[in-house]
Write a structure and sequence with these properties.
15 helices; six-stranded mixed beta sheet; Serine Threonine Protein Phosphatase 5, Tetratricopeptide repeat; three-stranded antiparallel beta sheet; single chain; alpha/beta
């Protein structure tokens, strides 16, 4: 989760160019010749084309897409894998293979396909589509794992937990209600900070959240030590980290955490006090103390990695935390807006940018036909302004804005509309996302639709 600059022009770090969310630009799947939709009717022609040029990567991937649209996943997977051998950087191949695996409920295998692509091509156009599917699969796997663990609870209770496996529970936030979303965000950043230390295997926040959801504990606040031990057994964690953030409207903010071991032992809480504006600095120091309670002392290099992880902009982190909350309840529209707000508040908060792109694809996917695969054409971010309507269909609006240190320095955007030439759903006006409050960022979307005959 290290924040890194993704500004297009290094000589002008405040200039971010983008395409507004919206544009459901229907394009061909890797084929030349302009916009269009892949149809099973193309299968004979594609087979003839491949007979003449069997290693044509574009044709192979288009053929795989057509087979997928025809419901022929077995053959589509084989063809997509051939296409991936020729064009491994193209996201369409992994998307076809992964979606077929998802349809067959082979979620672990789908996750491996997506993860393998992201390891090598996370910065390629289309990676956001993979990231979106990866997040959806990760969530489905977490729910399935939670239900399986509960069904086997008596059995798991007899198996010793892994001593180096650690899970972080949602942080209880008391005081100013405006900071309640930090419960998710602080748990996430603590998890990723500790994951930087190779000593520990961290349980994903989603997995912990899914289990708490199955136990109906998501709204229960801080769980008692006995419940923490139970959760630890269910996720096979030898240690659970329980955090508490006290953020009064005025006065000193306190961040503390204790480790609950699998035998029920609870360590004395580690504490950090300070001003609320320094909350994220306090979190870093708390992670060092948590690691110490877990029996590990950070090296200088590990400490540097932890300090560089994430953002130190509290407004950006709060918006990101709101995005996590929205995404956890399946509200990808709101999540996209919050992640965009976070990316605008801190343009170097790369994790927020990635989450925004994935949530945007998820919004588009929810509006698509079942035979559609959605990816992203642009990775740039812009602040279109307060109350901006972002149309989802038919039009691609590009905007360039100079994002300065204060809102008063932001220049007026200039816009150009480009008609896509294709409608994704007949007889229905394109839906919109209305963003109110803080200016948000947005980016262009490419929806690859495989039309059924």
């Amino acid at each position: 989760m290290r924040a890194r600059s993704t500004v297009s022009d290094p000589s002008s770090p405040r200039r971010l160019a983008a395409t507004l969310l919206g544009a459901a630009l229907v394009v061909t799947a890797c084929a030349p010749g302009g916009p269009g939709a892949v149809s099973p009717n193309e299968i004979p022609a594609l087979e003839q084309r491949l007979a003449q040029a069997p290693n044509d990567g574009d044709a192979l991937l288009r053929y795989a897409a057509a087979l997928y649209a025809a419901g022929r996943c077995d053959t589509a997977t084989v063809v997509a894998q051939r296409g991936m051998g020729v064009k491994p950087q193209d996201a369409l191949g992994p998307l076809v293979v992964g979606r077929c695996l998802e349809q067959d409920q082979r979620l672990d295998e789908a996750h491996v396909v997506y993860a393998r692509y992201m390891t090598s091509y996370a910065d390629r156009p289309g990676a956001a589509g993979i990231r979106s599917r990866q997040g959806i699969v990760r969530r489905e796997r977490a729910i399935a794992a939670a239900r399986d663990a509960l069904a086997r609870e008596a059995e798991l209770a007899q198996v010793p937990a892994e001593p180096t496996t650690v899970a972080v529970l949602p942080v209880q936030v008391v005081g100013d209600s405006a900071y309640q979303p930090l419960s998710r965000g602080l748990a996430e950043i603590m998890t990723t900070d500790l994951a930087l230390l190779e000593r520990f295997r961290m349980v994903e926040r989603l997995q912990v959240g899914a289990l708490l959801g199955e136990l109906n504990l998501t709204q229960a606040g801080r769980v008692d030590p006995a419940t923490a031990v139970r959760v630890g057994h269910l996720v096979r964690a030898g240690s659970m980290v329980q955090g508490l953030a006290t953020i009064p409207p005025r006065g000193t903010t306190r961040l503390e955490a204790a480790v609950v071991r699998s035998d029920g032992e609870v360590t004395a809480p580690a504490r950090q006090d300070g001003a609320v504006r320094d909350l994220l600095k306090m979190e870093k120091q708390l992670v060092v103390e948590i690691a110490r309670q877990l029996g590990y002392e950070l090296s200088a290099a590990e400490l540097e990695m932890v300090l560089e992880n994430g953002t130190q902009n509290l407004a950006a982190f709060l918006a990101y935390s709101r995005g996590l909350l929205a995404e956890d309840r399946g509200d990808y529209r709101s999540a996209a807006a919050f992640y965009a707000e976070a990316a605008q508040a801190d343009p170097n908060f790369d994790v927020a940018r990635d989450a925004y792109e994935a949530a945007t694809v998820s919004v588009e996917t929810s509006l698509s036909l079942p035979s559609a695969i959605t990816t992203l054409s642009s990775v740039e971010v812009v602040a279109p302004g307060v109350g901006t309507e972002l149309p989802l269909g038919g039009v691609l609006t590009t905007t360039v804005t100079d994002i300065a240190a204060t809102q008063s320095e932001t220049t007026a955007p200039t816009s150009t509309q480009v008609t896509s030439g294709a409608q994704t759903s007949a007889s229905q006006p394109p839906p919109t996302i209305t963003v109110l409050g803080t200016p948000v960022a947005a980016t262009g979307v490419v929806r690859i639709i495989f039309r059924l005959p």
